[in-house]
Amino acid sequence: MSLVLALALMAAPATADAMPMEHYPTLPHVGGADHTFTEFGGKDGLTALMDDAMARWLRNPRTRPFFANADQARIKHLLVEQICVVLNGPCTYEGRSMAEAHRGLNVTQGAFYALVEELQIAMNGRHIPFSAQNRLLAALAPMHKDVITH
Ligand code: HEM
User: Fold this and answer.
1) How far is the C-alpha of 82 from the C-alpha of 97, rounded, in Å?
2) What's the total number of domains in the chain?
């Protein structure tokens, strides 16, 4: 796990339970670097990245059970929209809140870390600058309070 992610997890507020996306205290936008969306290759880059990431999540034994029977195309589409918004891109996220989407899935901390690690490998594979990767991870990390329920 990256240092940035570890720090962000520790700093995450404990009160985010069941909060809709728009009410996250520290989310969903990365700050200070308006070129982050471009560094990810825009929406096409995010789409390609989520294809790579989902392929990896389906291969990793810690994440595969969650995604194997899910609507993978829908999840990828919503992740592209959500990350695009987080990166200040020209998108609208119309999916559910993180609490609602992950309720009852029993996502463990180990599964969360495995998902993030596979995402990091996918980002490296697409040569996304490390600083841009860390900005995204820092923005996503506080969501773990709504995702990990087990
Ligand atoms: C910061 C981390 C995460 C983010 C940003 C995220 C984002 C999302 C988004 C945007 C959706 C679609 C919402 C919707 O259906 O309306 C979703 C659904 C889903 N996520 Fe996550 N997720 C995260 C972590 C995880 C983890 C760690 C797992 C399991 C290893 C997971 C498993 C799933 C599954 C199985 C669904 C589909 C649920 C369903 O169709 O009912 N997610 N996630």
Assistant:
1) 10
2) 1
Ligand 1: residue whose CA is nearest its atom 21 = 102
Is the CB of 12 within 6 Å of ligand 1? no
pLDDT by residue (tens digit) across 14-48? 333 334 444 444 445 776 557 999 999 999 999 99
Tell me, yes or no, whether 4 lies in a domain: no
Q: Ligand 1 pocket: which of 102, 116, 119 to mutate (most atoms <8 Å of CB)?
A: 102
First to last CA, the chain: 19
Pocket test for ligand 1, best of 80, 115, 136 (most atoms within 8 A of CB): 115
Which CATH number goes with the domain that contains 142?
1.10.490.10
CB environment 87-121: b (16+ within 10 A), e (fewer): bbbebebeeebbbeebeeeebeeebbbbbbbbbbe
For residue 123, give the 3-state DSSP assignment: helix
**Prediction pTM value:** 0.87
Residue 26 lies in a domain: no
